[in-house]
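Entry for the shared binder. Reason: the reviewer on the internal report wants the predicted structure included alongside the sequence.
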Amino acid sequence: MDTTLVPFSQFVLKMHSRCDLACDHCYIYEHADTSWMGRPKAASDEVLTRTAERIAEHAKAHGLSAVHVVFHGGEPLLAGRPRLRRAAEELTAALAGVCALDLRIHTNGVLLDERFCDLFAEFDVKVGISLDGDKAANDLHRRYADGRSSHAKVIQAIELLNQPRFRHLYAGILCTIDIRNDPIAVYEALVELEPPRIDFLLPHATWDEPPLRPDGSPTPYADWLGAIFERWERQGRPVPVRIFDSVLRTLRGQSSLTESLGLDPADLVVIDTDGTLEQADSLKTAFDGAAATGFDVFSHDLDTAARHPGMIDRQLGLESLSAQCRACPVVRSCGGGLYAHRYRTGHGFDNPSVFCADLLKLITDIEEQTVSAPDAQAPDRTPGPDQEQLRELAAGYGGAGAVRALADSQFEVSREIVARVFSQTGRSPEARAAWELMTELDTAAPQALDQVMAHPYTRSWAYRCLQGDGGADAGGLAEIAAAAAVRAGYDRAVRVPVRGGLLRLPTLGALRLDGVSEALVTARPDGFQVRSGGEPLRISTDGDGWDDDRDPRWQPLRRCELPGWTVALEDTDPQRDAHLHPVAGRLSRGEAEAWRSALAEAWQLIRRTLPGYADGVAAGLSTITPLAPGPEGSDVSAAARQAFGTVGIARPAGPDTLALLIVHEFQHVKLGAVLDLADLFDPTDTAPRFSPPWRPDPRPLEGLFQGTYAHVAVAEYWRSRRLDLIGQGADDAAVAHASAAFDTWRRHTAQAVEDLAGSGSLTELGERFTAGMRATVAPWLDEPCSTRPSGRGPALVPGS
């Protein structure tokens, strides 16, 4: 296999080569290319079968974790349900056990009906719709051949996708820009349709056929998009917009979400109805035959197509751009624009984009407004740990800087997930009002909002919403807004739901309100006021939650202030049941005091004997959630993947065990955050094929990785505990117990590291992590260690 080759992961499969509309801006039928005239109308069974085989062959050869296939046209719905079913079945069967399959269809929507949607639901085919705005804007181009409007049928299709049973199929709206249309009217018309995403596309043009510039302005497209960007920002970015999100990401050094921006190598190939392999469809606007490769799925594998000079040129990044582009200050964000838009007869594609001035202005304006402005709404957050911090984490440790970098990246994930909840479920006036207040607070009091957004159970609530969990709904937006407003002292009444008799204010506590379903919460200088009928109730939030002289209905979140570490005891939030084990109820004052005392002793032990972990714990573990006791007093602890910053623990008998459970579970928290940033192993390797020494049941690769990483800390705990006991002159039985535990866990962990190394499924970063763990554990195997029996076996750690 050619390791320098960039494999394809995106495939456009042409299901039908004709269209039922006659859009005059269509790059397939109305521009330079005429190849569609000689294509079969629909893809045959042979083409579908061979295409599926080629994609599976390519994915297996390059170890791809997922491929994305878009059914396209022409108009793909003209292929009919039986042919679309055949395509979905062939692809699903061919890729089973090879990699994940993301199926999508892009359609004009005029033929979409319930039977198509039922088929797409069966195969989880996401549906993107083309629509250029309101009726006037859409009718400017998207009409039938006889001049009839298509707008009403497209709206009907989108209304169908917005029905609850099909909403999960709705991928978004694609809108081609025409600067003669009012930008705000277009934007508002699209937002009104509640799309999960909007994709604004520049009209296809080249230097030979330049874009419309009716007023002679050099940057009308930047001005058009800029007007929308300002409205989008003021509204708090209510829906993802691909071009804006891509600019913001590339300005912060991240990857683009679209081929038309950024320097990421192109990884897309088109399979036409006759099985020919082509470059991106947008090239059809350049010259007749521009997209052709001369290859097809019957005679050539996909690696052959990937070596085509045109494909390679779109994968070279900065090297492939013109000298003018390489010298441009925004080149890493612009990327030279869409490849097709660079074409000029006699010069080929060695030119800036025909939209160069527009792209420069748009990117510069967005940068000034959001990234580099001192009062920018969104701070420039660290996207994740740097290479040195990753080295620390790979060894099993990670200081305060590394863990803060993980926390920053998790904060951004939380913001994105909460925004998706609003985008997908925020249709009620209450949800919209809450979102508008959150947007205001993001500017007026960002620290207060950030504290609530960073709460571990903000993310777990949002994730459960997106998963359709009946225990979580969009009312959480109001809870976030109210809690942030109270923290900021922001005088705005917020209507908050009351569930199960509890009014939830994340990071503050919960208020018992029986017999009502909602209440109005308003911030006051020392707390907040609640109205739910009758006299208003005033609650003080001063202090650290331990003051008993308050309304007994108020259950404040208690915080333990320890030397160098402040940690909350979260026993109030109804969303805290995320640990696959029953949570404890509200702690009594005595129980809470026992927790505080145990935490103080455990923290002292961690700081003294495990300094390599202590700073990371202090930087990233903000919350401990008390769990219900285990059967017969067994130790219980857990970490929740979607709740960064917390661990769940049933308070054990002694502070030494509590220290062990804290460092052990926080290892899972750290590794989960790393896995959100990058793959350490092939995510499709999910078979339970590993038998770690500490569990009787086979585990999948992720379970082995998580357990190994956690047990690096477990082994070091017992190593340090043994030395600490010896230094204290402890009795022989205690030393022997710690020695036996250290000997067991160093051997078990070392064996698990080698199992990981031999799995054959690690990525480059996963290999670095495995090598880092090996470098930490291997020297311990040579340390002399007394293993005199004490009558107790080595302490087992739950949850791994």
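Summary line for the report: The chain is about 40% helix and 15% strand.
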